[in-house]
Amino acid sequence: MRIAVLGVGLIGGSIGLAARDRLAAEVAGYDPDAELLARAEELSAVGSTHDSIADAVAGAEIVFCAAPVGVLPDVARDALAAAGRDTAVTDVGSVKRDAIAALGGDPRFVGGHPLAGAETAGVENARADLFDGARWYLTPTPTTGGLLYDRVQRAIAGMGARPQAIDAQAHDRLMATVSHLPHVLANVLVAQAAEALAGDYSERFPEVGPSFRDATRVAGANPAIWGDILGGNREAVADQVEAAAARLSDAAELLRSGDQDSIAAWHAGAAEHRRGLLAEDRAAGRLRELRVLVSNTPGVVAQIALALGDGGVNIEDMALHPSADMSSGAISLFVTGDDDARRAAELIGALGHDVVPVER
Amino acid sequence: MRIAVLGVGLIGGSIGLAARDRLAAEVAGYDPDAELLARAEELSAVGSTHDSIADAVAGAEIVFCAAPVGVLPDVARDALAAAGRDTAVTDVGSVKRDAIAALGGDPRFVGGHPLAGAETAGVENARADLFDGARWYLTPTPTTGGLLYDRVQRAIAGMGARPQAIDAQAHDRLMATVSHLPHVLANVLVAQAAEALAGDYSERFPEVGPSFRDATRVAGANPAIWGDILGGNREAVADQVEAAAARLSDAAELLRSGDQDSIAAWHAGAAEHRRGLLAEDRAAGRLRELRVLVSNTPGVVAQIALALGDGGVNIEDMALHPSADMSSGAISLFVTGDDDARRAAELIGALGHDVVPVER
Asked: Is ipTM strictly over 0.85?
């Protein structure tokens, strides 16, 4: 088959590599940045390079629009204008409502969003296996052509992803809840702490604890991308942000009531919620946390990770909690299932470290 | 010197060990749980055990009240009732206002709060070096006796901590901002996501991303402790929670405005704030983040951590971002300062992994 990739960053480049590798596709590439396009060709992410969208799109069975979110609808519109009647046009934007509103009436357009690659950027990091096992949302409308939709779905499944159809608005609400809202909360938390810093105890701000560090890790992340995402999904995000504000007002009221039993029940309920959410996240079993008390010198993390690796236990997630002077601390290790948790505790115990299982 | 420790969990036990080890103190121990008290003696955390607070307190120069937050004021009151005129009584509660309101008029009482040990619990985990380098807040009042205050301050400095005087209300506001508020935000976020889950897309909830996982790590943490902390500091926490709700409402309004430049500026400001906050957190230099793309098999974390350890680079913090099917992923590594960041990138590159420096 022949596909076109419009925009050759991390996602576009990986689509090109996966399509060539897994679908034996010819890949026509276009990017307004000629240097980037040449680099993509060097890396074999595209098989041919083209000076215009119309050139790249000619003869393609599927056109993948992989430009930055802000210009995606324009690129997709140009692609549809240039493409023939039997060409499917899809995109990879993380917000779908605007694209669907603009283009969803065209039977050739299928909105898409692969959940992959958020952790990096650039065609240099493109990989043929980027989408292996990744959810890839598709947002067909009632007017979307069935054969073209099926073609897109089969292609992305062939590239290793797990396609799933979802209504565009439901998609945007979902992303607003699990991805965009955490970013807004992080932004708000650092702003509030910074204001406290500038206040009457500015010179004695404490070591910022692990809870603060974890909660704000994504504050202000990747401004070039996130400004567009938050703006592009503004209605759904604003709904979620307002809902969170209302929940916080309720929580403040509960706290002021001084009703200790209700406060404790509310707090314990959060542990239940998280367990439920993360359990759904893991096919292989429930995520278990172990805390290890260690001296925080170079090598200790390695020693533990190595022992677990040798023992066949995979570390799913890890968080370090250094003490104030970095002389010691704790490591939170997350492994999957009770068996791995038990095995991990044995392996770490054998190294002479104290292990504390954490029930949540 | 002679001290008394009332309550022999992690903190009380560590005070006992540190006082015996660093101050050559005689340590009299009391705990309502006789078994626990015996265990503390076995572990040398206390030198003598006593059946009552009055017995333990007799002859002590400093009494450390290390009971759970909920009963701390009662324990401290009993200690003051039993103690002589030249005995200082201090506590370790993470909320100070109530204790000060109840006891701050007594010249012998000095409220205290060591920032240590939050990552675990139990006398089994007590260590003489738990407080090394840790901030230890003291909340004297105008009526606190100067000589007794000085005695407490010198003792905790001798145990390795860094004492700092702070007004009790300022302390509680500070903790509400940097510690208690993140916990409330995490609770609210999981509740909101759980509700979304139960809604119309319950069967197609996506893999929960790293931003969600980081943001909710402390949701519902340690219910036995946190119910009391949130309740005990309820006014200050409620103030902070309401302020966060107001900020979220403002953020929702900004988003709805669709003013892309202002949204981008607001988002970029958050990165500035976080940089400022974490820079103050590190004496040795700015925390730098590197992203490493890896296959997520047992052993890779170890390989990298080992290479950094061998190269003398300390990993200050680490977060794993597995791909959906766990077949690959990214590791965020945090190291201190530009030199370590450069060195880490070299060491990891030499292993054949791609390293992406993250500018925040």
From this structure: no
